[in-house]
Amino acid sequence: MTVTIEKLDNNEVKLNIEIESSVSSWEYDKACKKLAQRVNVPGFRQGKAPKNILEKYVGIAAIQREVLDSLLPTVFENAIEENKFDLVSAPSIESYEFADDKSLKVIAKFELKPEVKLDNYKGIEVEIEEFKQADDAVEKELNNLAERFSELKDITDRKSTATDLVNIDFDGYVDGEEIKGGSAKNYVLDLAHSNFIPGFAEQLVDKNKGEEFKINVKFPDEYHDEKLKGKDAEFNIKLNAIKERILPEINDDFAKRVNAKFETLDALKEDIKQYLENGAKMENERRISNAVYEKLINSTEIEIQETMINREIQALMGEFKQRVNMQGGNFDEMLEKEGHQKVYDQLKEEAIKRLKTSLIVGKIAQDENLSVTPEDIQAKINELANIYRTTTDNIVSEIQKNANILHSLNSQVISEKVTRILIDNAKVNYKK
């Protein structure tokens, strides 16, 4: 067997493979025997059909593909390993010549990852706006906790206020037509924390239990449903019930209700303070990370081939379409309104940014000799179990069903390790 390697433009590699006729013929006969065991040829017991009959029944091309599938993976693996190629995609067969008593000739191609010419990535100087918690952040968190532990009292002797919860029936109309998904019965709405259309909750204030009325609102211009963007709407409302939130007194007993580990209110406050400090630290690290990656992306030379960019654009397009559909929008209508070229250009910019980030992370991981340990994966499994409120055994079971999950976890671990190196070594200046 001989394998010659030819490097082409656009980070492509061409393999010219020639396999001796003795080897290819032996593999061909072996493939015939395998196929004979898998197919039923009329007039012959399974596995007993002669080669010439099998060739007519399944086709010579099918047998040849079986030979290629058997021989080439090892050839590709050896060529990649010996030359330390870093592939973007699996090798593809361009052509092959397969004839009796002649050597098997195969031409295959594959793409390599672009070369990353990375300058010093340690000590990058960035300037960010420092995130700081508000002076009353602890008190606000305590008040939020108090709301979570509040009790609800039915109100019958007064009108609704902006801090009440209300039970309502509603149905909405735009241009005289009922809004799809714009109606509900016995819907409980927290007037102080409403995520409804702006102006909706405010018009439910100062109303009596049992009152029926109409309200008028305007859908935001950036609303996810193209048919409702910027539209005026009318809603019929029936206020079924009013509930007042009765807040507990914030004291030592309240702290114990939050968690038995807190003996005093001061202990709870200290825990909240630590939580807020950790949150501020994480937010500042996120800002540092974004600034560092932005500088690296802009300063690093990488010639990314169009095929890679196009694949990434298609992936982004799929993600974009899924998001639009999940939000109740129509992707095709959105694409038509925004303009195909505009959307494509935006996705291309994002695709290049994502690819450059991934390639930079890979290069730093290689330079730093980073690896993923079993402990790293276990930590990720624990994290997923916590997020999805399930057991680690269930997460492991899902990983065993889908190898892509494990690949994704490995990538996350490496990315996090690289990001930690960049943050720890960055020179940070906070804006005054």
The main pleated sheet reads as:
5 strands, antiparallel
Q: Beta fraction of the residues?
A: 15-25%
Number of domains: 3
Helix content, binned percent: 40-55%
**Stretches with pLDDT under 50, minimum 5 residues:** none
CATH fold category name of the largest domain: Trigger factor, domain 2
Care to count the β-strands?
A: 11
Q: Tell me which CATH architecture of the largest domain applies here.
A: Orthogonal Bundle
Helix/strand structural class: alpha+beta
CATH homologous superfamily descriptor of the largest domain = Trigger factor, C-terminal domain
Instruction: Characterize the overall form.
Output: elongated
Summed up, the helix count is 12
Q: What's the level 1 CATH class of the largest domain?
A: Mainly Alpha
Mean pLDDT: 91
**Over all CA atoms, what is the radius of gyration?**
32 Å
CA distance, first residue to last residue: 68 Å
Summarize the helix and strand pattern as letters: EEHHHEEEHEEEEEHHHHHHHHE
Verbal overview:
It is a single chain. This protein is of the alpha+beta class. It folds into three domains: 2-111, Alpha-Beta Plaits (2-Layer Sandwich), CATH 3.30.70.1050; 151-246, Roll (Chitinase A, domain 3); 265-430, Trigger factor, C-terminal domain (Trigger factor, domain 2, Orthogonal Bundle), CATH 1.10.3120.10. It has twelve helices and eleven strands. The strands form three sheets. Strands 6, 7, 8, 9 and 10 form a five-stranded antiparallel sheet that branches. Strands 1-2-4-3 form a four-stranded antiparallel sheet. It has a two-stranded parallel ribbon with strand order 5-11. Helix 4 packs across helix 6. It is elongated and about 100 Å long. The N and C termini lie far apart (68 Å). The model has no long low-confidence stretch (mean pLDDT 91).
